[in-house]
From TrEMBL:
Membrane topology field: Single-pass membrane protein
Protein name: BCS1 N terminal-domain-containing protein
Residue spans of biased composition, Pro residues class: 546-557
Protein family per UniProt: Belongs to the AAA ATPase family. BCS1 subfamily.
Principal location listed in the UniProt entry: mitochondrion
Record region (Disordered): 388-437, 540-601
Regions crossing the membrane: none
Comp. bias regions, Basic residues: 419-429
Domain BCS1 N-terminal, chain residue ranges per copy: 75-287
Length: 695
């Protein structure tokens, strides 16, 4: 059969909707003029069309072998296609109607945190992960996430044939991607209900530009959650569940946020801050500090954060603010205590560096106004920020610190200014230089070169405005740290801005002993279950077993329990806070503390060693496997502490020494005297570089 005869038979059948299988001659009878196909086929190129040829072959095959008229099949396919189209149209129309009248919807934009919560939850749903339409995302592990050691110990083999060093080259390759629902419609069940999820994306034009300041298109993603029924309640429950699950993972973490990039800060509110870290909570007991001081700070913050406090403050017309100044030499635990406090109270920590050259006073105000209701704001090394007083403020300033002297010179002539600044720089060269000093110098240098930059630097009044101006967000815990409290402007630390000053000192002998014990005590996992985490964490610290026979037993957790009348009385006699508020009874009394302590087996180490260096490593590893019994550890710790002159070494220095002898308490004790003598000699000589022998 040639193409002309085929068309003669097929076309009239389809057009006329008749079925005369195999009767090609009837086609022409049904109206197609004789010879028309013969004329059209070459014109349309049908004779050479491979598809037509294929169609012809199939037509013949089906017709001849199955005895079915292929036209029926074509008609059926056409019908199915049309039905499908019709169904799609009807479904869309009915779904739109149902959505409008019988379904509740909630939209979540990707610019909101809930989007991240929901996506994480969806990615963890087995049904979703098995969906046929997914988006794969690279999900690298964070620094603090648990890893399967066996996967990593595919170490590089040393020349002596031993597997000594870890190798992480395949780490990224092994990391599993995260699968989330792709763009489009999805459905799933949750809590016995059927939910529809639509993930959609649209490009929005941003005329003000992004990081480069050029107008650009930005992708905006939205998740639309729907469920049957006229109430959005089930969707709200789902979102709440996703949020809870998200924060369940973060409960043992402290989220650290810093100001976002300048371009993002323009958008304000939640765009002002960006999460930079997500670290495990630092247990309060790991910060070695006078117990009295710890209890005092904990009680103070606990009282301030209590839900009844805002009313109490409001009734008395006092601004709801609490500021703390942590001062002391470098490495004495100021930052550590700030993080431990954030962990105890389950708060996020917002760190601001006033040295950030991109930070303007307007930014600072905006940052403070976009803080959440409860959080810890950490202003680190406030003395190095080069806070300037404005000219007006200068005249009234009685500050005597280097920085403010520098800044109060603004009214003087340039010569005097230069001389003074040279003098101060000369004096500075005699003192210790820190990286922060360098940054400040660079900033000052930059300011001298560009008058426009001058506008950017933060003045003291700018900072004070942010801290307690009208725009400030009340309710936050503000912690300022400094190495030089005496250089701070009085205005900055006056009561109302700084309510509690905490002095940190170099390690006492007791603290040296405690640091030693903390470093070498067997690893424990402490789980606290109760309703009031802050107070229980206090209890965690306070009810920790005595570290050694040499330490005085810590007060019992009940020593900080509140009485009904709201008076908080610490039986250790340290703090008495009376809030005079009859109807409030806070802090709430301590409830049950459940502790489970698990001793972790040391990781097995199999080393095949040949040379001396590796043998020593092996000995150290063997020693590392030995967990000293508590009395023995206490004895060694006391001997160690006796070798450390009080007030000469910062806890950070001691920690550095001990870390180099990690898991080797006896070796630390054996080497401490040499180290102390060496470091003291170096300090005397003004050197900052430690020889290898004294490290
Ligand atoms: N009192 C302490 N108890 C336990 N560890 C401490 C203590 N002080 C310092 N450290 C350790 O020393 C290191 C530095 O401590 P941290 O940053 O808290 O000191 P800092 O006083 O804030 O120093 P800087 O003034 O230089 O910012 C940390 O690793 C911390 O664990």
């Amino acid at each position: 059969m040639d193409i002309n005869s085929l068309l003669r038979s097929a076309l009239p059948t389809l057009v006329g909707n008749t079925s005369h299988a195999g009767n090609s001659s009837s086609a022409t009878e049904n109206g197609l003029p004789e010879g028309l196909l013969d004329t059209l086929s070459p014109l349309l190129g049908l004779q050479f069309n491979p598809l037509m040829k294929l169609f012809m072959i199939l037509h013949n095959l089906v017709g001849r072998n199955l005895g079915i008229d292929p036209t029926y099949i074509l008609t059926l396919v056409g019908f199915v296609w049309a039905a499908n189209k019709l169904w799609a149209q009807l479904y869309t129309a009915f779904y739109a109607l149902a959505r409008q009248y019988f379904m509740a919807n909630i939209e979540v934009s990707n610019s909101d945190d809930i989007y991240a919560h929901l996506m994480k939850w969806l990615a963890s749903q087995p049904k979703m992960v098995d969906s046929r339409s997914l988006t794969a995302e690279t999900a690298s592990k964070g620094a603090w996430e648990d890893e399967d050691e066996s996967e990593l110990m595919t170490g590089r083999v040393c020349s002596d044939g031993s597997d000594v060093y870890l190798n992480f080259s395949s780490q990224e390759a092994k990391a599993l991607p995260r699968f989330t629902p792709a763009l489009g419609m999805h459905s799933f069940w949750f809590g016995g209900r059927y939910f529809k999820l639509q993930r959609k994306q649209e490009a929005l034009f941003d005329p003000s530009g992004g990081a480069q300041g050029m107008p650009q298109y930005k992708d905006k993603e939205t998740l639309v959650l729907s469920c049957f029924g006229r109430s959005p309640g089930p969707i709200k429950q789902l979102l709440q569940h996703a949020k809870e699950q998200y924060y369940l993972d973060h409960q043992a973490k402290t989220i650290v946020r810093r100001p976002a990039a300048q371009a993002m800060r323009r958008y304000g509110h939640r765009h002002s801050w960006q999460q930079v870290a997500d670290r495990p909570v630092r247990p309060m007991k790991t910060v070695v500090l006078d117990d009295e001081q710890k209890i005092r700070i904990l009680s103070d913050v606990n009282e301030y954060l209590h839900p009844a406090t805002p009313r109490w403050y409001a009734n008395r017309g006092i601004p709801l603010r609490r500021g703390y100044l942590f001062h002391g030499p470098p490495g004495t635990g100021k930052t550590s205590l700030s993080f431990a406090l954030a962990g105890v109270f389950g708060l996020d920590i917002y760190v601001i560096s006033l040295l950030d050259p991109s930070l303007t006073e307007e930014d600072l105000l905006a940052l403070f106004t976009s803080l959440p209701r409860r959080c810890v704001v950490l202003l680190e090394d406030i003395d190095t920020a080069g806070l300037k007083r404005t000219e007006d403020a200068d005249s009234s300033s009685s500050s005597s610190d280097d920085d403010d002297n520098k800044n109060s010179e603004e009214g003087q002539d340039d010569d005097t200014k230069d001389k003074k600044s040279k003098k101060s720089r000369h004096q500075k060269s005699k003192k210790d230089w820190k990286v922060s000093d360098l940054a400040r110098e660079l900033k000052r240098h930059g300011n001298n070169n560009s008058s426009s930059d001058d506008k950017k630097s933060i003045s003291l009044s700018g900072l004070l405005n942010a801290i307690d101006g009208v725009a400030s967000h009340e309710g936050r815990v503000l912690i300022m740290t400094t190495n030089k409290p005496e250089t701070l402007d009085e205005a900055l630390i006056r009561p109302g801005r700084v309510d509690l000053q905490v002095a940190f000192t170099n390690a006492t002998q007791d603290q040296s002993r405690e640091l030693f014990v903390r470093m070498y005590e067997p690893e424990t996992t402490t789980t606290i279950t109760a309703r009031d985490p802050p107070l229980l964490a206090m209890a965690d610290h306070l009810s920790a077993p005595p570290l050694s026979p040499f330490s005085s037993p810590p007060p019992s957790p009940h020593s900080v329990a509140s009485s009904k009348d709201g008076n908080m009385t610490d039986v250790s006699g340290i703090t008495e806070v009376n809030d005079d508020d009859d109807d409030d009874s806070f802090p709430p009394s301590l409830t049950t503390v459940t502790r489970t302590t698990k001793k972790q087996a040391p990781a097995p180490l199999t080393l095949t060693l040949k040379n001396h260096h590796l043998q020593r490593q092996c000995q150290e590893a063997e020693e590392a496997q030995e967990d000293l019994p508590a009395p023995e550890l206490a004895r060694i710790a006391a001997q160690f502490a006796a070798c450390i002159p009080a007030g000469q070494f910062s806890p950070a220095e001691l920690q550095g020494f001990l870390l180099k002898r990690k898991k080797m308490p006896r070796r630390a004790l054996a080497e401490v005297e040499v180290w102390v003598a060496g470091v003291l000699a170096l300090k005397k000589g003004g050197s900052r570089v430690l020889a290898l022998g004294v490290q």
